[in-house]
Amino acid sequence: MAARTPVIAGNWKMNTDVESGTALAKEISELSGDVSGVDKIVCPPFVSISSVTSAMSGSSIQIGAQNVSANSDGAFTGEISTSMLQGLVSHVIVGHSERRALNGETSDQVAAKAITAAEAGISPILCIGEDLSVRQAGNASSFVAHQLEASLDGYADWDSLIVAYEPVWAIGTGEAATSEQAQEMTAVCREVIRKLAPSAADSVRVLYGGSVNSGNVAELLAQPDIDGALVGGASLKAEEFSKLIAAAGSD
Ligand code: PEP
């Protein structure tokens, strides 16, 4: 089995403005721009994509978007299409739990976004994860398996896919999943991929997300089915984010 290159992706969410985002990008680029052996991605707000790209030019840090429409064009006020993002980003987050919870996104819609993005040559970072009540009821594995399968309905471009297991109860709470819990669930995700596309299961990167920081990243990355991290809060602090990149990289 070919080794999977780890991924550290930062989701800035609705934080930073153009000026502060550009400054943050510059700092990250200076600290981590040359680290190899890891795919490094930052996902700023749409309005900062151009300036963040300029601030990071010459580095190997890639840029992602935080969302995309499944529609190609037309009367969708406030939405951003894949063709608008082509050439600007290499990745896009789809199905983040905040969009599922706050914007009512369904797994069907997430699947449509992932398919549209991949067709445009933009790699989807597809998020799934259970909330606390599901975990407490002992249903985390079956919930996540169903959610992932539904979110990949009709999806075919396995080379470009990144999956992010993000338990809702761990996002932004400071309470990360244990490495055992994260391993168990990323393995569940990999088995879903194996069922849908047997030949892709060992090459698709499966990330963990939820309160990752420099204190817990090494243990999480040491798990056999965890290929990196999707990072919220810690991606807004250049030094902390760079420590995560350093932990995943080879120099
Ligand atoms: C996220 O929002 O994807 C996330 C993982 O956030 P945090 O790292 O802040 O928990």
From TrEMBL:
Family, similarity comment: Belongs to the triosephosphate isomerase family.
Subunit-structure text: Homodimer.
Active site: 96, 166
Gene: tpiA
Enzyme Commission number(s): 5.3.1.1
Catalysed reactions listed for this entry: D-glyceraldehyde 3-phosphate = dihydroxyacetone phosphate
InterPro entries hit by this protein: Aldolase_TIM (IPR013785), TIM_sf (IPR035990), TrioseP_Isoase_bac/euk (IPR022896), Triosephosphate_isomerase (IPR000652), Triosephosphate_isomerase_AS (IPR020861)
The entry's keywords: Cytoplasm, Gluconeogenesis, Glycolysis, Isomerase
Keyword Metal-binding applies: no
Function noted in UniProt: Involved in the gluconeogenesis. Catalyzes stereospecifically the conversion of dihydroxyacetone phosphate (DHAP) to D-glyceraldehyde-3-phosphate (G3P).
Pathway the protein contributes to: Carbohydrate degradation; glycolysis; D-glyceraldehyde 3-phosphate from glycerone phosphate: step 1/1; Carbohydrate biosynthesis; gluconeogenesis
Locations listed in the record: Cytoplasm
Name of the protein in its database record: Triosephosphate isomerase
EC supergroup of this enzyme: isomerase
Gene Ontology BP annotations: gluconeogenesis; glyceraldehyde-3-phosphate biosynthetic process; glycerol catabolic process; glycolytic process
A GO molecular function held by the record: triose-phosphate isomerase activity
HAMAP family the UniProt entry points to: TIM_B
Gene Ontology, cellular component aspect: cytosol
Organism domain of life: Bacteria
Residues noted as binding substrate in the record, renumbered to the chain: 11-13, 172, 211, 232-233
Residues spanning the signal sequence: none
